[in-house]
Structure formats: C-alpha cells, structure tokens
Amino acid sequence: MIYEISNQFFTAKIDSLGAQLISLKGCGGHEYLWVGNPEYWREHAPVLFPIVGALRENRTRIDGRWYEMNRHGFAKSREFTLKERGEDWLALSLESGVETKAMYPFDFELLVTYSLTDGGIATRFTVKNTGERPLPYSVGGHPGFNLPVDEEAEFEDYTLQFQQPESQACPEIDLGTGLIHGERKGFRLEGKEIPLQHSLFYQDALVFEHLNSQTVRIVNKKSGRGIEMDFAGFPMLGVWSAVNDGPYVCLEPWTGCATLTTEGDEFREKKGMTELAPGGQAEHSFTVRVLGRLED
C-alpha cells in the first residue's frame, strides 16, 4: 500500500513494501528523490536491515548454524504494517515471524518513522529486541536523489561537500562478491570536497568511516541547489551511483557494512555489528534537507 504525507512545503509517498520512501516532492511538484528508473536502478530508498551490504556467499553463521540472507537483508522485501500516522508523519512496523527466522533467528521489531520538516524529511529507525537473548544487527538508509536538480545543469556540475576537512582512504569493494577488501584501499578523500563524476562509482560505493563531519551535501556551487544529509549517530557513510552512469546519487548512512575479506562469517563478530540486550531498543536517525528549493 502507498501512503502519502504532506506539509506546506513537501509531499512524500511511502510504500508499505519495505517501508520504502518512493517520492519526495516540493510544493511546486519537483521530484527530489530518485525516480526508480529500472534502466539504471529500480529502487528509490530501500531500508537496510538486519545487514548492510553483502555476506560472503550470501550466508552467515549464527549460534553454530548457517543462515542465508541476500545483500542488504530482508526488510526491503517485506510488507510492513502501519503503526501510527499523522498528516505529516507515519510509522511502519516489521515484526519477526517464521519467514524472517529462517534467515535471522531472532525476535525483533523494526519501526521506520518518516516525518516531514520545513526543509525536507527525517527518517528514524527504531530497533527493538522482543526476545530473550541478545539481538545483533546492522541498519542503514539508501536514499537516492535525482541529479541534476537544476533543469539545465549536468551531473558534473555538482560536488560532494563535507562539513569538516577529512583525510581517509575508502576501502575497495569487490564488484563480483560485494565484499569489502579489509586491506586494499581505493579513492582517497583529502579536504572537504569531491567533484562528482560517474567514474567515481565504477568500483562501487565510496565508503567512509568515523568522519569528522556529521553532514554531507550534494550541491551545485553556482546555483546553491542540492541535497544535504545529517547522518550524526551513524559511524559509516556510503556514497553510490550505478556503474551505468545513472542520473542520481545515493547518500547512505550505515551502522555496519558488508563482510570484510579479512574477517570470518560469524554474524555477531561482523564489523559494525550492534547488539541489543533482551527488552532493549535503539534509535538511529538521519535527516534530508533540500537546498535552494526550486519552489522558492
């Protein structure tokens, strides 16, 4: 089912399948979220849970048994139920069951809440351990944004800007397996800015960890238009677009990542894994703000 929320600045649509945001339009009708053209990438903003990225051979070991799970987990392909809603917000819920336990043998509830603001939209993931043993998980967002934002601009007119100066090398990702090379490094960020070009993503996502910055933006420096994300509280950030020169860029806040080539297959020992005590819950939020709205 498709739900719609709105305020005086934006209208958003959310699909109960995967609790996925599928549209974010300004009051003048301009679409800021990636349109999901299957020629490039058919998704819009999938929810990543209980893993981010790929497992080695799509399987992992939990408490002595092997379980299979596809890249980015199963939440994006599960039907969520409406928990609560208002005019400009809603919360959708996914609870564990027989089918999820065949892949992930834990009791949980994942609550995804979307709230429109005067600048854009906020997303909150609430993870609850409803079982009697510790709950290991990773969670992340994967929203894509249409580029160019300006009607007469080009993809290369935009730049990725960080809030603070940065100095780190992104790990290489194996294009065949999706695993992250634990030792080999690729693109290196020095400073606050990366001019966008499609070739940046020919080796998959740029993956950053423990950045000094808590915000990142995609912006046209001439017009000032673009998208800004506040990802405070997420230790990792992925920046991605398809290798086929897709006209969009994803900004992805993560709590964990794909399996490293240098680590084993024990689920609880994966890099970035969060573990909740029985009865516990945790929240992870990020906010998207539109810069220089076309409607203004």
Structure description:
The protein is mainly β and 296 residues long. It has one domain (2-291): Beta-galactosidase, Chain A, domain 5, CATH 2.70.98. It has one helix at residues 98-101, and strands at 2-6, 10-15, 20-26, 59-62, 65-68, 81-85, 89-95, 108-116, 120-129, 135-137, 144-146, 158-173, 180-195, 206-209, 215-220, 226-230, 236-240, 248-254, 274-276, 281-291. The strands form five sheets. Strands 6-7-8-9-20-16-15-12-13 form a nine-stranded antiparallel sheet, with no helix packed on it. A four-stranded antiparallel sheet has the order 11-18-17-14, with no helix packed on it. A hairpin with a 4-residue loop joins strand 2 (10-15) and strand 3. The model has no long low-confidence stretch (mean pLDDT 96). This is Aldose 1-epimerase family protein. It holds the Pfam family Aldose_epim. GO terms for molecular function: carbohydrate binding; isomerase activity. InterPro entries: Aldose_1/G6P_1-epimerase, Gal_mutarotase_sf_dom, GH-type_carb-bd, LacX. It comes from Acutalibacter muris.
